[in-house]
Amino acid sequence: MDLQEFLRMGGYAGYVWTAYGLTALVLLLNWIAARRSEAREQESARRRSRAD
Amino acid sequence: MWLWFHKLASPPHAYRLLGKMAPWFGWPALAMILLATWWGLARAPADYQQGDAFRILYVHAPSAWMSMFIYVAMAVAAAVGLIWRIKLAHAAAAACAPIGASFTFLALATGSIWGKPMWGTWWVWDARLTSELILLFLYLGYMALRSSFDDPQRADRASAVLAIVGVINVPIIHYSVEWWTTLHQPASVTKLDKPAIALEMLYPLFIMIIGFQLYFGWAISRRLRGEILRRERNAKWLQEGA
Fold this sequence. Notes:
The complex is a heterodimer of chains A (52) and B (242).
Chain A: H1 3-8, H2 13-51
Chain B: H1 2-8, H2 11-43, H3 57-84, H4 87-119, H5 127-147, H6 152-166, H7 169-179, H8 199-231, H9 236-240
Helix pairs in contact in B: 2-8, 3-4, 3-6, 3-8, 4-5, 4-8, 5-6, 5-7
């Protein structure tokens, strides 16, 4: 299969790639958000234990 | 048995266990999702009616499945928290909500993108689409309700009631394609006799669903760790450990 044909997705390129791109984006944002909320709480817990 | 259970539900133990578990979910999730994406886009044969547009199925159906699965998990956790007064269960329910909301958004968005070339419209107000939209509002309402309380215990109890009541919507979503006339196609995979879809088209779907489940396992571990820290900020184990 050649690449051009693959990217064209039988004429549905815009729909198919947007759907997959959006999925990747949302999963990535979730990944960042989950990591961040954990890191934020760890940092604030560390600060509190130092303050005591 | 009860001793074991109390140990598992104790915040410091759960915190450490979740930290150890997370990578065991995360890396397999990444591998499965990449494999299913490649398989679904490049290897599965095109549909004879829908051509290559049907490939949206591989992100749409797993997202929709996860949106309902996570809601049920959230409602069960909320019920356990409410009945047995287990704080960790409330924390788990709270951690489910943003993940579930994102999968619900994905199911709606990818469905809409698929609907345009197949049905000729981005959106119709039929039973399946409307009940899935209500699911998104349930998640958002749950999160808004939680954040409207300063007292975490009152937030836990009020939001748990909302989560439990809202679970009625899940069977409505599932059976909506049978109960009402709709543009949405009926289930092709979860039919009791034989799935109405070719096996070679089915493998990437299953792999993607497992990948999304593992991703959820990773995300809930991370978020629940954050929740535990926030709730336990004055606890002794945190000041001693960390």
